[in-house]
């Protein structure tokens, strides 16, 4: 499958519940590259890229996230790929 990149905006109770840590672990386990960060509006933003089936699997898993998270909705947008060597947690934007 071709490699794709997707920008995600994750809304709900997703800050203070280890959502970013969960995102890093899950993305790495699926062989994805990218980043995740909290947003000042209370959402979480992520860039995930890799094989299309792995990105789709990540998005499906992100609907639940870690046990104490309550995801209300995820907005997903295809974006150009970035040259990244791994998956990292970034500062709040």
UniProtKB/TrEMBL annotation:
Instruction: Give the InterPro entries listed for this entry.
Output: Acylphosphatase, Acylphosphatase-like_dom, Acylphosphatase-like_dom_sf, Acylphosphatase_CS
**Catalyzed reactions per annotation:** an acyl phosphate + H2O = a carboxylate + phosphate + H(+)
- Name the Pfam families on file: Acylphosphatase
* Entry annotation: catalytic residues: 20, 38
Domain Acylphosphatase-like intervals: 5-91
Question: From the Swiss-Prot or TrEMBL record, what is one GO molecular function term?
Answer: acylphosphatase activity
Top-level taxonomic group:
Bacteria
Q: What is its EC number?
A: 3.6.1.7
Q: Which UniProt keywords apply?
A: Hydrolase
Q: SUPFAM superfamilies annotated for this entry?
A: Acylphosphatase/BLUF domain-like
Q: What is this protein called?
A: acylphosphatase
Q: Which organism is it from?
A: Sphingobium scionense
């Amino acid at each position: 499958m071709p490699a794709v990149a997707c920008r995600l905006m994750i809304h709900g109770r997703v800050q203070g519940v280890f959502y970013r840590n969960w995102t890093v672990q899950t993305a790495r386990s699926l062989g994805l590259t990218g980043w995740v960060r909290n947003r000042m509006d209370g959402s979480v933003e992520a860039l995930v890229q890799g094989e299309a089936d792995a990105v789709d699997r990540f998005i499906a898993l992100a609907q639940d996230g870690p046990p104490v998270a309550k995801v209300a909705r995820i907005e997903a947008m295809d974006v150009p790929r970035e040259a990244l060597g791994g998956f990292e947690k970034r500062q709040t934007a």
